[in-house]
Amino acid sequence: MKPPVFDYIAATSVEGAVAALAGAGGEAKILAGGQSLVPMLNFRLLRPALLVDINRIAGLAYIKEAADHIRVGALTRHYQLETSGFIARHLPVVACAMTHVAHLAIRNRGTIGGSLSHADPAAELPMLALLLDAEFHIASPAGKRVAAARDFFLDALTVALDTAEMLTEIVLPKLPPQTGWGFEEVARRHGDFALAAAAATLTVADGAIRQARIALTGVGPTALRAAEAEAMLTGHAPDGALVDRVIDAVRSVISPETDLHASSDYRRHLAGVLTGRVLTAAWRRATQSPA
Amino acid sequence: MSTARDITVTVTVNGTVHRAVVEPRLLLADFLRHTLGLTGTHVGCEHGVCGACTVLVDGDSARACLMFAVQADGHSVETVESLGRIGQMNALQESFHAHHALQCGFCTPGMLMTATDLLRKYPLAADDDIRKGLSGNLCRCTGYDHVVKAIRAVVGKSGAAR
Fold it and tell me: Do B23 and A5 lie within an 8 Å CB cutoff?
């Protein structure tokens, strides 16, 4: 259980990091928090020629508030997101979800950019990025580009990043006014990866849903948005019959894996139950003034 | 296979500055145990699941099996040896002793370092908060009950988490 031999560069700038990645011709990995990468190295599932450590790049860990969004530096740790006042005020769904991510020692080290780039099929952050229509700022040797979350997650552990590209910033739009949220996760033990998790936001006007967003994780190769289910809610108040139809719609668009921890059928069942719960919570929060 | 370049690191461990030349792939846990001889940090699973190797890096708990020694260059690491010694244990260690919070003791260094960070960061108002906080530290002896009681007994007491 010792990592294989690799060369190591501690980058001090984003430009230096992507240049080092480009120079390694696809044989390099970025070392950020290391909470997923280092286990894979210890197991020797990966044998990169070079690790490019980005932890010493100054100014890559931050949570900044702008008028209608929050900008999160890629090197920001989960614990910072969990405890940020900006996040608690404008994106409470993110603060809530962070307490479900692994354990304190992992949240202290694991980074936001790292989790999103790693794209574990049961991780919380890809689901949140999809839920909130996040924007990813990406650096490459050729310059910078921006990608929408919906175009980023391609498959299990596979994202739209070239081997010489690096995620630098995540832009999370604030929840609009009159918006409620819900987050629910079921895991075998607290801190384990989700068997299934769901999150929703409901924006309400005049007693009806103006915009519904539903996202799930743990139930397919990538986190996903349930677009059909969202459309069914628009223009309505979510009574029991409608929520039941939405739950059916969610269950019909997913095809979860069976593994050691849960069957496909159980995960599909969970996805529906959790969708019902997050919609109920989101509606309650959207329609009740804060106490 | 070519040998990667060795790197000189300067790491402050329990207040003492250490300089060493290390391979990039040397895990922080092995640096502490083998290079510095600080065997209080235990190595269980070596892939971030069991929590036995938990130490504090710049005051924050971290898995020493999921960090490389080169990453600790210029940083401060605290291990279980920093908490106290026989006859001079800190309040948390005394509470583990008093509540029978260990049997074989293998998980105990990780439990103590995790609890130290939990006590600093969270109110731990309910026992369930303590249990969730310990969810990343595996113990095969105690069933966790006495560990929870030991931590409960020092919540809110000044000096428990130093």
Answer: yes
Taking an 8 Å cut-off on Cβ atoms, the answer to whether B133 and A8 are in contact is no
Instruction: Please state, for a pLDDT cut of 90, what percent of chain A lies above it.
Output: 98
CA–CA dist B54, B63 (Å, integer)? 5
Q: pLDDT digit string (tens) for A189-248?
A: 999 999 999 999 999 999 999 999 999 999 999 999 999 999 999 999 999 999 999 999
Q: Which residue has the tokens 């309650």?
A: A284
What number of C-beta contacts closer than 8 Å exist between A and B?
104
Q: How far apart are CA B152 and CA B148, in angstroms?
A: 6
Q: Contact A121/A165 with Cβ under 8 angstroms?
A: no
ipTM: 0.95
Q: Which CATH architecture has domain B7-82?
A: Roll (3.10)
Q: How many CA atoms lie within 13 A of B147 on its CB side?
A: 29
Q: Which amino acid is at A268?
A: R
- Output the CATH code of domain B91-152: 1.10.150.120
**pLDDT tens across B2-23, in order?**
456 899 999 999 999 999 999 9
- Is B10 near chain A, with CB under 8 Å? no
Residues A5, A142: Cα–Cα separation, whole Å:
30
Q: Is A148 on the interface with B (CB under 8 A)?
A: no
A189 touches chain B (CB under 8 A): yes
* Entry pTM: 0.96
Work out the minimum CA distance from A8 to partner chain B, whole angstroms: 6
The domains of chain A, with CATH numbers, are 7-53 (3.30.43.10), 63-173 (3.30.465.10), 179-287 (3.30.390.50)
Q: How near does any CA of chain B get to the CA of A210, in Å?
A: 37
pLDDT at B161: 55
* Chain B interface mutation, best of A108, A111, A118, A188, highest count of B Cβ atoms under 10 Å: A108
